[in-house]
Model the fold of this input.
Amino acid sequence: MLIDRDFGELFSGSGKGADQAERRTDTRAIVLVAAAVSYDGGELSATCRELSASGVFLATPHTLSVGTRVALAISLPNGSISVTGHVRWTTSDADEMAGLGVELCDVSEPALQTIAAFHAAKSRVTG
Done:
């Protein structure tokens, strides 16, 4: 199932169009780090490809149903975070990178600080 939305659209509010970037409130970063995904019924490994304080894109050939509650353990260079969320969209289209868009829920202050520090360090390197 492919929903025609990019990561920014998914986590910035409703609607489509060029103004999506203007509505984005959380900084997102392109990353390439390991993530462990636990859900009722199993576990799977994924690669975290995009990360913000409100969501992640996980590259994985495995699919989960939209709405599935997940627990994520993400290994960032500056520390690991454990967060919970639910699958908002999936893609398994051969032309796209297969994966899951996960909206994060109840992110702890330490996890938010780790994400913010990661973003700050990444922007110093790439910015």
Confidence is low (pLDDT under 50) at residues 1-24.
